[in-house]
């Protein structure tokens, strides 16, 4: 049934022949005009009357928008037209307005009756709504701009959460997992304060507890922002023991937030001021830490100030009762929180880069001989096993086992410093003669040279050249007159060899034969 529907509707080209595509059909659906029952009107204890200009209303459509209402019903009334809407459920609002509760009324020309707006008491007395009056088109544009900012902040927060989750999967660093959880809390908080959790219909199961959830998540996000700023400003580096204290405080705030959700709505006027108190006190501590980090020349200081600057502007605006904060409180809160999350994400990505560098450095140290810079025995044998697998039945793989002659005597006569320089020079000569990955320090004064694609005769000639080059090593400043030679055993891989042990044994035996023959020569197995 589904494929036939797609063929008939989705893939049909019949309508293309007319030069356009028609989507949808005529509808008799009416936008919701939700009335206000007496119980709702009884809870609306704040009211504003929008008076007409002198001479009465001009007779043109008037749009009324009520923004920054965090919870509860909003009523807009003029004459016999009375509508109510909830930010928590977009289905109850005029579909032309998405970031606010709005309505369009058309008072008769010369009408002197005011437009009445009523709402419930806000969670905090200073969190007053913003009422906008004007033409439908300009206010709809403002409403759309608010919606874009709110939705963009939520989208960025969600993207940061996913990015941090991938960072945790790559590094298994617990900090990335904590950051992911923090982003989720910020996302839920933004959905609650913007009302987007009710668009296009309620998708967060908060029910009638929206006010409690808003207050609880506001306290959580304030605590998380302060913890992030403390970390950005270098608090954990300057006071290493503060990490546990911050963790315990975050746990306490989480418990208080969840416990406060059980309080009746009437008791939230006291609890709702907790985020502001915490924000003010925390800002003082964080600023002090940022100043201390700056005085000590820590790089954390600059990053901390970048995250702290908009936070301080928000705190100052709150304390001074700034008009712009009253008008755009929700957007300001979102932008400050999102900016902090971005700065923290940058710091986490830098942390991930440092972790990768440390991991790569540790890997190099584990794979490399510290003196000569050559691959060590473990890595060399892995490389040899890979080359044996590639050699196959043709067996075109040879190795040279190199032992520096009289190395103990060099150490005893000239000292271990000269001995180390001899080993470094031997490694340099061989690395310049073949690929550096094919030269391995097996331990002490012994080296292994791998020659893929070379038969026994070719390997013997190549190692003879290396032996002659070793004899030209000179250490005039530290060991004048020192002659460096080596005994070299060469062996070729046989397809019948069970593993690399037989090949290495033949090369080792050939090397000892070269020593027995008088040293400073190449002997083939």
From TrEMBL:
GO terms for molecular function: diguanylate cyclase activity. Its EC number is 2.7.7.65. Signal peptide: none annotated. It comes from the Bacteria. Its cofactor is Mg(2+). Residues 395-525 form the GGDEF domain. The chain crosses the membrane at residues 147-169, 176-199, 211-233, 245-263, 269-293, 305-326, 332-349. Pfam families: GGDEF. Keywords: Membrane, Transmembrane, Transmembrane helix. The keyword Isomerase does not apply. It catalyses: 2 GTP = 3',3'-c-di-GMP + 2 diphosphate. InterPro entries: Diguanylate_Cyclase (IPR050469), GGDEF_dom (IPR000160), Nucleotide_cyclase (IPR029787), Rev_trsase/Diguanyl_cyclase (IPR043128). It is an enzyme of class 2 (transferase). NCBIfam families: GGDEF (TIGR00254). PANTHER family: DIGUANYLATE CYCLASE DGCM-RELATED, REGULATORY COMPONENTS OF SENSORY TRANSDUCTION SYSTEM. This is diguanylate cyclase. It comes from Stenotrophomonas ginsengisoli. The lineage of its organism: Bacteria, Pseudomonadati, Pseudomonadota, Gammaproteobacteria, Lysobacterales.
